[in-house]
Each structure stands twice: as C-alpha cells, then as structure tokens.
Amino acid sequence: MKILALGDIFGRPGRKLIESYAASVKKEFGADFLIANIENASAGKGVSEANAKDLLKVEAVDMYTSGNHIWDKKDVNNILQESDRIIRPANYPDPCTGKGYGIYRVGKKRIGVVNLSGNVYMNNLDNPFLTFDKIYQNIKNVCDIIIVDFHAEATSEKIAFGYYVSTRANAVYGTHTHVQTADERILDKHTGYITDIGMCGPLDGVIGVDKDIIIKNFVTQRPVKHEVAEGAVQLNGVVFEFDDETNKCISVERVRKIFG
Ligand SMILES: [Fe+2]
Ligand SMILES: [Fe+2]
After folding, report:
1. Which ligand is nearest to the CA of 208?
2. Ligand 2 centroid to 137 CA: how many Å?
3. Which stretches of the chain score pLDDT less than 50?
C-alpha cells in the first residue's frame, strides 16, 4: 500500500497543478491513495465552494486535508458539511463546521486520515497531542492505517508530535510552512515521518505570494495586499509505503517537481 500526500495547494497555479498532474504523479509513484491539502486553494487564502467543487471532481485525489485558512472563504461551510472528502483540523472548537478526521476504504484496507493544527505560533486550540489520543481511541479498531496531516509552524512541535504518536499512527507529515524539509525517516521502525512536505503552487514567490509584495512588507513593516505569484510552479509531497501484512511504514520518499 502506498499513500501519496501533496502539500498546500496555493491559488490558481496550485489548482491547475492538481487538475493537470495529480493523476499522472499518483500513477508514477504507484500510489493507491492520494491526499492533498486544500487550505490555500483560492487566491492563497481558504477555498471557495466553487473551487472546492472543482477540486473534488479530480478523481485522482481521494480526499483533502486543510488547516488554519480553511474558513477564510465564507461559503466553504456548505461543502465542509456536505462532503466527507474534505476535513479540517480536529482541534478547532466544536461549533466550527467540518470533520477532523475521515475513514476511507482502499481495497481491503481502511485508512484513517486525521488532521490537526499545532498550537505554537498558531491559533490557541485544544491540545493537538491530547486530541489525537481521543481520536485514536475512536478509530484504532476500525483502521488498518492511520495517517496524520499535522498542520503546524514550529519544527519542534511537529517532531515531538511525530514521536508522541509513533507506533500508533502509521505515518505523520507536516504542512503549513509550504517549505519541504529533508528529514524524512521511519520512527520506531513503524511510523513514517517528515516535518513538512512543502506546497503545490508558485515557485518564485514567498510561500506562494508575489515576492515583491512580501519584500515590501518586510522592508516597510506596513500592511500589504497579498497576490498569488506567477511563473514557474512546484509540486511537493511525500510517498509512504506500508507493509501489506503489518501495515508498518517501510519507506518514505519525498516528491518534488518543478514545471516551467
Ligand atoms: Fe498553507
Ligand atoms: Fe496553514
């Protein structure tokens, strides 16, 4: 069993990457299941109902995780309530729309995908470590493979979380920074891990945003209006392979492609 996870889809360039290449990259890596992060799909901030519907039409992507930007577009609430193929971090307060995890069948295997947000330099949410414990109790007997998209800023929180859930989750990967890390490994000969898988969208920007706008922001310390960068694009992610008998992770391979 191979699971491909793709990082934060950023704006129109990111959506076009998914629509054009998700199927071929899934095939190239022999993946049975594909997860992508939808939190920045509309102009880099959230995802509109219309854009979410278009991305849900991409059959190669089995489901979408998200993050702190998921509610930026107001009409996303409908799709979060209707679709089981988009989830949001489980540790947001209960009144928030959407579900924090989903269970999906691939052949004879049931895959549990859990989405959590970190708390360091992020919103002040329920403790993601303890939230995982609760979800794990609910799903451990009905899932063969549990995979976590840990959407967080601080590398320390991500690494600590990986160790905390090691041997319970079968794979953990980070999103949110949009920058791929090179620390992929297998924890305790069981749990695939990488601190951040990177993003799908513009290459020559600052985590997706036009670089001149962000430089101006740093130079002047004045607010600026973000615009999605143009030009070359990057598609980043990771492929985890799991042993068919034990469901333990046996390989972690980074995916990094540049187009244009
Ligand atoms: Fe993001
Ligand atoms: Fe984020």
Report:
1. 1
2. 26
3. none
